[in-house]
Amino acid sequence: MQNISTVFVLDKNEQSREIIKSFVDGLDFVNEVKLYSDYNQGYEEIKQASNPVVIMDISEEPSELREIADKIKLVTSKIIITSINYSTNTIIKALRLGAKEFLPKPVLKEDLIRVLTMLASISPEEEGTPSKIITVYSNKGGIGKTTIAINLAAELAKVTKDKVALVDLNLQLGDISTFLNLNPPFDVNYVIQRLIDKEDSIFIKGFEKYKDTSLYILSDPSYIEQSGSITTQQISALFKKLKKVFPYIVVDMSSSIDPLSLKILDESDWILFSTIVNIPAIRNAQRCLNLFRSRNYPAKKVKIVVNRYMENDEIKIEDIENTLGESVYWKIPNNYFTIMEAINKGVSISEINSESNIGSNFRDFASKVSDDIIEQAVVQYRTRS
Ligand SMILES: Nc1ncnc2c1ncn2[C@@H]1O[C@H](COP(=O)(O)OP(=O)(O)OP(=O)(O)O)[C@@H](O)[C@H]1O
Ligand SMILES: [Mg+2]
Fold this sequence. Notes:
With 385 residues, the protein is an alpha/beta fold. The chain folds into 2 domains: 4-126, Rossmann fold (3-Layer(aba) Sandwich); 132-384, 3-Layer(aba) Sandwich (Rossmann fold). Helix content is 46%, strand content 19%. It contains 17 helices and 13 strands. An 8-stranded mixed sheet has the order 8-9-7-10-6-11-12-13, with helices on both faces. It has a 5-stranded parallel sheet with strand order 2-1-3-4-5, sandwiched between helices. Strand 4 (79-83), helix 4 (88-96) and strand 5 (101-104) form a beta-alpha-beta unit. Helix 11 (232-245) runs parallel beside helix 12 (259-267). The longest helix has 28 residues, at 357-384. The radius of gyration is 22 Å and the shape is globular. Residues 138, 141-147, 170, 175, 255, 307-308, 332, 334-336, 339-340, 343 line the site of adenosine-5'-triphosphate (ATP).
């Protein structure tokens, strides 16, 4: 267990602040407690501290709350959120603001001590939010995996403001750096060989930060002969490290089914299984879903995404659902021209036209993905407490 340097209490209510201070004052593993009714002023101090814990009240929802929470998240993940309201919606809001723990008000002394003890026992090395590996997959080529992975990741970074990794594990024919016009200094092979055991701040240097966003890209190896040398153990180690550093990891891969691909699929939290609306693609999807069933993937791990969807398609979504025996999670419209313009200019779709049918679709898709991940966390939270 490590000492907590400072507990910062951000709360508009003076009495609540004082109560928390009285609980924390006697703890020998906390050096000091600081109280703020002005959240901005609190943030200015938080960013100077090393290993701080923040207790932030959201009962009153000051207007700048989201903005401040986004900034605090970048300094520490040790955030406790309190509120007089403890509906599921409030807990979802708290988790979205970056809460590691939620405590209903009035805060009980034993709950606060339990949570602070837990946070003190997390070393900076083990920090990080519960993160998800979201792999875009199809056992058929040319379905739109790379398009989906790139644009979902770009929108996730915008919607959540969290760090999002976009990892090209299409080791022989990766397209991400071409689609986004990148000249990556390093690639996945280098990162696996040289950076994986390094501290997080060095590891992340293997990624190319995409413009002024929180999207970080790890590109495929530049030479095909390097791709064969990556082992299944190395994939596991890479995923473990990625999960420590990024709340969201989006993976693009090839359509083959070989031991390395199966390892990637087995170790992903979510598989966005992509298909298009035509009979051969759906037949292939059926086969692949059977394979997933035989591997006993947990319910909700595999989510079906229909790409290039058109309202007037002869085959309807219900037909696909009946054939596959699963519901469709998301549909992406067909919009060849906007996508081709994005690829030709080497940018994401929203940079071409964020209000086009496909631009807004990816934004809504990212919101749904992040909402569903947060909801899963709430269910886990509810069952735990
Ligand atoms: N929603 C869409 N509407 C129109 N065109 C699309 C859509 N999604 C993808 N495409 C087009 O389909 C083609 C293949 O897309 P992409 O490269 O993303 O597929 P992929 O599954 O990654 O292919 P590969 O198996 O070669 O890696 C591209 O030309 C892309 O522009
Ligand atoms: Mg591809």
